[in-house]
Amino acid sequence: MGKQYYVYIMAHAPRGTLYIGMTNDLVRRVYEHRNGVIDGFTKEYKVNQLVYFEIQTDVNEAIRREKQLKRWNREWKLDLVEGQNPTWRDLWYDIAGT
């Protein structure tokens, strides 16, 4: 299996403040968001629940997709999350193996 890249959406609460990011290590990156390891938007606004992610196998495609989602209007982003995760369940426990 080749390298994987993740485009993900974090939320403060259901339908709350959103953050979109891209990483090659989803568990590490979400851990950092959840625990305020890195100063910035997610720490300041307590955006610490993983509510959506998708897997890409090409880094350039992952970057393109991240930028695309960031340009989307809010309703499209909410619809995307709710299409895969209608209850806004925190997916951290799925990816962390806990």
Topology diagram in text:
Elements: E1 5-11, E2 18-23, H1 26-34, H2 41-44, E3 49-56, H3 59-71, H4 74-84, H5 92-96
Antiparallel strand pairs: 1-2, 1-3
Number of contiguous helices = 5
In total, how many domains does the architecture comprise? 1
Per the CATH scheme, the topology name is: GIY-YIG endonuclease
The CATH homologous superfamily corresponds to GIY-YIG endonuclease
Radius of gyration based on Cα positions: 13 Å
> Strands of the biggest beta sheet: in what spatial order?
2-1-3
| Mean pLDDT across residues | 96
CATH class call? Alpha Beta
Can you offer a commentary on this structure?
Helix content is 43%, strand content 21%. It has a three-stranded antiparallel β-sheet, with helices on both faces. The chain is built from five helices and three strands. It is of the alpha+beta class. The protein is globular, with a radius of gyration of 13 Å. Strand 1 and strand 2 form a beta hairpin.
What is this entry, summarized?
The protein has 98 residues and is of the alpha+beta class. The chain has helices at 26-34, 41-44, 59-71, 74-84, 92-96; strands spanning 5-11, 18-23, 49-56.
Keywords, separated by commas or semicolons:
single chain; 98 residues; alpha+beta; GIY-YIG endonuclease; 3-stranded antiparallel beta sheet; 3 strands
